[in-house]
Amino acid sequence: MEIIVRLDVMLALRKMRSRELAERVGITEQNISLLKSGKVKGIRFETLAKICEALDCQPGDLLEAAPTEVAG
Questions:
Q1: What was the pLDDT predicted at 69?
Q2: Is residue 37 one of the residues assigned to a domain?
Q3: Which residues does residue 67 pair with via DSSP β-bridges, in sequence order?
Q4: CB contact at 8 A, 63 and 6
Q5: How far apart are CA 52 and CA 43, in angstroms?
Q6: Which CATH number characterizes residue 60's domain?
Q7: Considering the domain boundaries, does residue 6 fall inside one?
Q8: How many domains does the chain have?
Q9: What is the pLDDT of residues 10-29, one digit of tens each?
Q10: 59 is in which domain, residue-wise?
Q11: Within the chain, where are the H helices?
Q12: What are residue 5's DSSP bridge partners?
């Protein structure tokens, strides 16, 4: 199983830029970029809650579990 981050989709739906989200959440725009690309090992629940509040969404709107493809 892998976790897919759909933050870019929610930003587009809310017509919000990464910079604005970063300011509202209190983290750097670079960290937003890392989250969007899925290049993070984890996220604090506090940060996730702030992102959900800023985007008026649920954690499940941002994160999706998908089966990992097995190379055969």
A1: 78
A2: yes
A3: none
A4: yes
A5: 13
A6: 1.10.260.40
A7: yes
A8: 1
A9: 999 999 999 999 999 999 99
A10: 2-66
A11: 7-13, 18-25, 29-37, 45-55, 59-62
A12: 63
Kind plus residue range of the DSSP H or E element containing 3: strand 2-5
**pLDDT tens-digit map of 23-59:** 999 999 999 999 999 888 899 999 999 999 999 999 9
Is-contact 35 8, C-beta < 8 A?
Answer: no
Distance CA 70, CA 72 (A): 6
Is residue 22 in a domain?
yes
Single-letter amino acid, residue 6 = R
Give ∠ CA 16-20-24 in degrees, rounded to 5: 115
Assess contact for 10 and 53: CB atoms under 8 A. no
Domain-embedded: residue 58: yes
Write the CB contacts of 36 (distance below 8 Å, at least 6 apart in sequence).
5, 7, 8, 11, 18
Give the span between the Cα atoms of 50 and 71, in whole angstroms. 37
